[in-house]
Design a protein that fits this description.
CATH superfamily of the largest domain: Type I PLP-dependent aspartate aminotransferase-like (Major domain)
Oligomer: single chain
CATH class of the largest domain: Alpha Beta
Biased composition (Polar residues): 1-12
Number of helices: 13
Strand content: 15-25%
Enzyme class: transferase
Cofactor: pyridoxal 5'-phosphate
GO biological process, one term: organic phosphonate catabolic process
Modified residues (N6-(pyridoxal phosphate)lysine): 209
Bound molecules: pyridoxal-5'-phosphate
CATH topology of the largest domain: Aspartate Aminotransferase, domain 2
Order of helices and strands: EHHEHEHEHEEEHEEEHHHHEHEEEHH
Distance between the termini: 20 Å
Largest sheet: 7 strands, mixed
Length: 400
């Protein structure tokens, strides 16, 4: 959790060689030079070398998920992360199933919207912008509605940065004999999500989040029994996970044109992930990024939306200062001039902005981020970064 973060513990990572700004955004994010370099070669999608790359990618992701018993398989899917979420929902929820969506932000809303498009019956526990869904309320909803077959939850809700209590939710879901599907897009690879950490039927993530690859595909890690049961269920030819799985197992190939360069880059990203020390080390670097950045920003007078208990090591939401001279667009431009791309906030009640902790960067970079924020405030003539009173009232609702 955020603490005094003045002691430097690690040698700096290399800085970007191409003079690009750091992307303090939760994907696409700043990638290693070697990851970009891996894309300087063309691959034939049917060729044995590329088929071997696909097989390695699937195996290494299953290793990260800790599938010791061989009960799961990994199916990569072309497109951005949302394509894989849609593929998961359309493939694993039967047409006569009913989904309980635990929503506390934009990505939970997108799941409910996707289910509407798919024509799958669903109910929503809507916790607003950032309150965490808790096991007790999930239990109440499941007791009240026996038709619910599946629960879907977002692991880290990237719109606020909250890390939802997955273990508590999973225990509740299975104690009630239902099945859990997880959108772990922005957490997988840096936050524990092994099959032994909490139970699930399927979990989704994508290439351009915590594994630090470039955008172009997502992947679903699912129980083989669920993959088999998904046959003929999907609403969509291109998003049919069973068909992709079956074809890939038989031919070693993707059904339709694969993002070959993205796969090559991803394998390099996986190598770096492994070399760094896997999920634990990646998560520790991001947590350190967060601690250094949050401590510095608080010292500069900024306030976080979330209390320490709910802060993820992925992305942090700050309230915008109430000072009349503060304007987000100008702050954004001033930060960009200094080499840092930040992210607008997504809260509906008060103005906010977000700073990502993921990507190829470390605490040394985060100290420069804080310096850049301080100078940008000074350039704007903002001498007090405190948020409006209403923001702090919002936050105390969360603590209650
Ligand atoms: C990034 C992300 C997605 C997928 O977004 P795309 O823009 O489709 O890649 C889904 N859920 C969460 C929680 C995310 O962070």
């Amino acid at each position: 959790m955020p603490n005094t973060a003045s002691d430097s513990t690690s040698a700096p990572l290399e800085t970007p060689r191409l003079g690009e700004p750091y992307l303090l955004t939760p994907g696409p994010l700043t990638t290693a030079y070697e990851v970009k370099e891996a894309m300087l070669r063309d691959w034939g999608s049917w060729d044995g070398a590329f088929r071997a790359m696909t097989a390695r990618l699937r195996r290494e992701l299953l290793d990260i998920a800790g599938d010791m018993a061989g009960e799961f398989d990994c199916v990569p899917m072309q497109g951005s992360g949302s394509f894989s979420v849609e593929a998961m929902l359309g493939s694993f929820v039967p047409k006569d199933g009913k989904v309980l969506v635990l929503s506390n932000g934009a990505y939970g809303k997108r799941i409910a919207q996707t289910l509407s498009y798919l024509g799958r019956d669903h109910a929503v526990i809507d916790k607003g912008d950032y309150m965490p869904p808790r096991g007790t309320e999930v239990a109440t909803a499941l007791d009240a509605d026996p038709a619910i077959s599946h629960v879907v939850v977002v692991h880290c809700e990237t719109s606020s940065g909250i890390l939802n209590p997955l273990k508590e939710i999973s225990d509740t879901v299975y104690a009630h004999g239902r099945k859990l599907l997880v959108d772990s897009m922005s957490a997988f690879g840096a936050v524990p999500a092994r099959v032994s950490d909490f139970r699930y039927e399927a979990i989704v993530s994508s290439a351009n989040k915590c594994i630090e690859g470039v955008p172009g595909f997502g992947f679903v890690i699912a129980r083989k029994s669920e993959l088999e049961a998904a046959k003929g269920r999907s609403h969509s030819l291109s998003l049919d996970i069973h068909a992709q799985w079956d074809y890939m197992n038989k031919s070693g190939q993707w059904r339709f044109t694969p993002p070959t360069h993205v796969v090559a880059a991803f394998l390099e990203a996986l190598r770096i992930h492994r070399e760094e020390g896997g999920v634990a080390a990646r998560g520790a670097r991001y947590a350190r990024n967060r601690d250094v950045m949050v401590a510095g920003m608080r010292e500069a007078g900024f306030e976080t939306l979330l209390a320490d208990q709910w802060l993820s090591p992925i992305i942090v939401t700050f309230f915008s200062p109430a000072h009349p001279a503060f304007a987000f667009d100008r702050f954004y431009d001033l930060m960009k001039d200094k080499g840092f791309i930040i992210y607008p906030g997504k809260l509906t009640v008060v103005d906010s902005f977000r700073v990502g902790c993921i990507g190829r960067m470390d605490e040394h970079v985060m100290r420069r981020v804080v310096d850049a924020a301080r100078s940008s405030l000074a350039e704007m003539g903002v001498d007090n970064a405190a948020p409006p009173a209403i923001a702090l009232e919002e936050r105390s609702r969360l603590a209650a």
